[in-house]
Input
Amino acid sequence: MFIKPFRMAAQAFALKMSPRRMAAGLAIGTAAGMVPKGNLTAIVLMTVLCALQVNLAAGLLAVLVVSFVASLADPLFHEIGYAVLTAESLQSTWIWFFNQPLAAWTDLNNTVVMGSLIVGLISIYPVYRATRPVCERYAPVISERVRKWKVVMWLAGASVTDRLSAAAE
Output
């Protein structure tokens, strides 16, 4: 059904507004949003976001916003990735890694992908710590307002209708 993604987003914002899960979704979504898409690294990060019990709507919102902003930081990501990929002490590690079967699909030999992955992984904890107090303060307010929206009530009703129609079949 085409309504299901909208229903899931409405439930995520209206019903499942745990501030810790929302902050964790924002943090992991930020890391996933920094990495250029179209490679195995981005797929793994998105899978982690979807597999963990975090607020998926907040995480996907962070991925969307950070994806647009992260392109402005590509020169910084390039410098960090270049430094890591050309570090003398890591050469044997990179030789071993890039000889593995799936390594070519990760695009970690690309300096921007490597740099953005490093910055993204390092940013998870600070983003979580910074957004958790904000989520604790505003999550109940947002949740209460979103529950009053007619479209959210309609989507919740669609959920009940789907269950009734599935039980009738």
The mean pLDDT is 85.
